[in-house]
Amino acid sequence: MGTVIIFALVALLALYGIVRTLREKNILGFLFGLGAFAVFGWFTVMTILHHGFPTGTH
């Protein structure tokens, strides 16, 4: 379940990259950021829905 947390952080960084590239008017960076956010965000959401939110104990 640690990978879900890491992928969620990557999705958040991709979202930050999307916002930053919009300010700089960088279309290619926006497209790559949007793709990364879509892939990592979808994986994170579906894993949390399927396996539940990761807890500290096993």
Automatic annotation (TrEMBL):
The chain crosses the membrane at residues 27-49. The keyword Membrane applies. It comes from the Bacteria. Pfam families: DUF2759. Keywords: Membrane, Transmembrane, Transmembrane helix. The keyword Transmembrane helix applies. InterPro entries: DUF2759 (IPR024490). This is DUF2759 domain-containing protein. It comes from Parageobacillus caldoxylosilyticus NBRC 107762. The lineage of its organism: Bacteria, Bacillati, Bacillota, Bacilli, Bacillales.
